[in-house]
Design goal:
Elements: H1 3-7, H2 11-14, H3 17-20, H4 33-62, H5 66-87, H6 95-101, H7 114-136, H8 146-158, H9 163-194, H10 206-213, H11 219-253
Helix pairs in contact: 4-5, 4-7, 5-9, 7-9, 8-11, 9-10
Length: 254
Amino acid sequence: MSHSEQTRLTYANYLHLKELLKLQKPKSASEHEILFIVVHQCAELFFKCALEQSKKLLYEFDRNNVENVSTRISRLTAIVETASAIMKYQENLTPFEFAEFRPALGTASGAQSEQFKRLLADSTRYREAFVRLLQRRRLLKYIDEPEEVLNAVRRVYSEPRFSKLMKIADALYDYEEAFKDHRWQHLKVVRRVIGKAPGTGGTSGLQFLEERLASSIFEELTLVRSQIVNIRSAMNVRKRSEADEQRKTSKLKK
């Protein structure tokens, strides 16, 4: 860019607003379709940002940059949360308003989003990257043994010397919660506007989304929380029992 072009730079031409604002092209006469288009275009733009962060996150995992890994995951989570917040705008759409332009969508469906598919595929890679990190830290030997992975994660949460790894584990847990929330927002909108009717892309609609919402990427991070609660409860019971015994012994001595 030349110096003269830089001096002429404005908010509008920097953002290419003239071109951007022409990209919303409704296929129906419904006034509500424009918001539907804008919401999904915005979501795709945030998916673009998420994929950029995802690429850098996987790089940081490979480089063993533990501090940077946590930062990248947090940024990625914030992007997904923003995309979810955008989806909430569609909750104001009534079934009748959606029905005004739904036929114009043809076979187009959110399930066809290539960027979302890539982000989902990357999300499963985060688990593998984290498990390999645990392996490099000699917390486990075989990455394809679920019980061994769970034991390694339990050690991460139990031993203070692994606090940086625990920070990554918590960040991954938060990311999955944000990712599930995005799917939940989509499911709520679908349930609100079409109920149990089939989806436009040939899917079963609500059932299709419910099945995917139930899946978990980092199952160990949920399982270990259950175990921590049970272990802590058992320790508290044992401590109370020991305290009672000490009081009884003390009384007998008196």
